[in-house]
Amino acid sequence: MARYFAGLDVGGTTVKSVLVDEKGEVAGSMVEVRSHVKEGYEATFAQLESALDQLLAPLGASRSEVRGIGLDVPAPSSHGVIWGQANLAKNWVGCNIRDRFSERIGVPVHMTNDGNAAAVGEYSLRHKGVGGLLFVAPGTGLGGGFVLPGGGLYEGANGLALEVGHISVPFLEEDGELPTCACGWKGCVEAWVSLVALRRRLRVELAKSKWEDHELARSESPVEEKAFRLREFAEKGDALATEIFQRQGHILGYALADLVRVFDPGLVVIGGGLAETGFRDRYLDWVRGGFQERAWPMYVHSPIDPEKATTRFEWAVGGDSAAALGMAFVARELFG
Ligand SMILES: [Zn+2]
Fold first, then answer.
1. Do the beta carbons of residue 132 and residue 263 sit within 8 Å?
2. Dihedral pair phi/psi, residue 202, rounded to 5°
């Protein structure tokens, strides 16, 4: 009888799922189903079971061959309990999702948040010589995770560590105010680098006379759509798009300098949708620029070998399957 370990990555819209065998090799292909998170956790549990069955069927395997599950959720969680709602239905909060799903399916389950899961995934996709790995993903918000040298995930005493989006940065809007964050506070780095921030910034810029002839200023489409198109403009070297992404990258780098001072990770991996764009090399340069402004020289270059970067920056390599893979590897570690 084979022994498999499943990684189930629950997102706001879909569940991405993958199996690894006892050697840690991916078995079969990834399966994606709707997550139905807004309909309550029971609806999502049914989807998770469906994903598992779709993973197992092509292998001719049964659920009894799944020895452990790694589950990640798009919300802060601790010891299997969701602490914050975000874009989930209310009944997720305060509920021990890990234990309920484990009882329902009869398999041990480990649960963490999506940033932690992707951090482990990115670590496991690299050679093992990596020291620490700090992962950040600008998207709807700004998620993050930290993998210790040797591969252990650092989740903190309560599983609440690495909420990196909400460290504060000293940048003001043009009206002299700190931007409001989705968490309710002001001045969080997420309020500068997220997709929501991109829309706000675009609205402000398009109101200026200097862009009145810009294609996006003349377009009637909603700002959500314009913000989505901003990436293709940046790829063409458009001045407005470049200005907006440059500022985002710079502020992300500035915040990363503070995190690097705390964790000294050696490697910073940036995930999220920007990793797939044609201007990602320029974006990474902007991140480095912000980082170098804030970080002391020793975090940039080694005093022993000035050619050697103390802190390296790389794009994520796992794409949108990193979190599911990471959780499958965690399940194999814990339950194998
Ligand atoms: Zn915040």
1. yes
2. -65, -40
Instruction: Quote the tokens at residue 253.
Output: 């780098």
CA 84 to ligand 1 center in whole angstroms: 13
Distances, alpha carbon 137 to alpha carbons 107, 195, 269, 329, 334, in Å? 30, 11, 8, 20, 25
Please tell me the distance between residue 166's alpha carbon and the centre of ligand 1 in angstroms: 4
pLDDT for 130: 79
214 CA distance to ligand 1 middle (Å): 32
Q: What is the pLDDT of residues 282-322, one digit of tens each?
A: 999 999 999 999 999 999 998 888 788 899 999 999 988 99
Topology, domain 132-316: Nucleotidyltransferase; domain 5 (3.30.420)
CA of 180 relative to ligand 1 center, distance in Å:
8
Whether CATH 3.30.420.40 fits 4-124+320-335: yes
Q: Rounded distance, CA 262 to CA 64, Å?
A: 43
Ligand 1 center–CA 141 separation, angstroms: 9
Whether the pTM exceeds 0.85: the reply is yes
The alpha helices in 106-194, defined as continuous H runs, are: 114-124, 190-193
Residues, Cβ < 5 Å to ion ligand 1? 166, 181, 183, 185, 188
Residue 86, pLDDT score: 67
Spacing, Cα 99 to ligand 1 middle (Å): 29
Parse the chain into domains and list their residue ranges.
4-124+320-335, 132-316
Q: Where are the beta strands (DSSP E) in 153-304?
A: 266-270
